[in-house]
Amino acid sequence: MIRMGGLLASVSMLTGILIYLFLRPHEAVAVRMVAGWMPALRSMRALTVGTVTQPFVVFSLPNGLWAFAYAVLMASLWKDGPSGQRLFWMASIPVVGLGYEIMQYAGVFPGTFCPGDILACLLGVCFGFVLSIQWEDG
Question: Is the pTM of this model over 0.90?
Fold first, then answer.
């Protein structure tokens, strides 16, 4: 389970990163940092930014993918761990994902609060948990 969980978490994270790098507008801070280092990335972004116009995919899906990756990874790592520690780490997933959005809403963290991000986070966490439970039963 750990190997499969690590693979799924890695693919999910990579997909979220690729969406960030190649589909999001240039204003994203992380994109500015990376694109400034690699001129080839800027050239590729010129071809890809704007090709996907669905806001949920461009702006919220990466949050869901990262929540999914976190859920699968924590479930894999703590599968046989003590129940108290496992519960702590599993509960940290929605706390981190949803907490960040709530802090944006409150103005504590920079960024834009988005209900779509909350939905994506919840879906990612739920799919990650369900998949992990299926592995345990199977």
Answer: no
Domain count, the chain: 1
pLDDT digits (tens, 9 = 90+) for 92-103: 888 888 898 999
pLDDT tens digit sequence for 20-53: 888 887 656 666 666 666 777 777 877 888 788 8
Burial class of residue 26 (count of CB atoms within 10 Å of its CB; 0-12, 13-18, 19+):
exposed
- Under DSSP, the state recorded for 61 is H
Please give the residue range of the domain that contains residue 73. 2-137
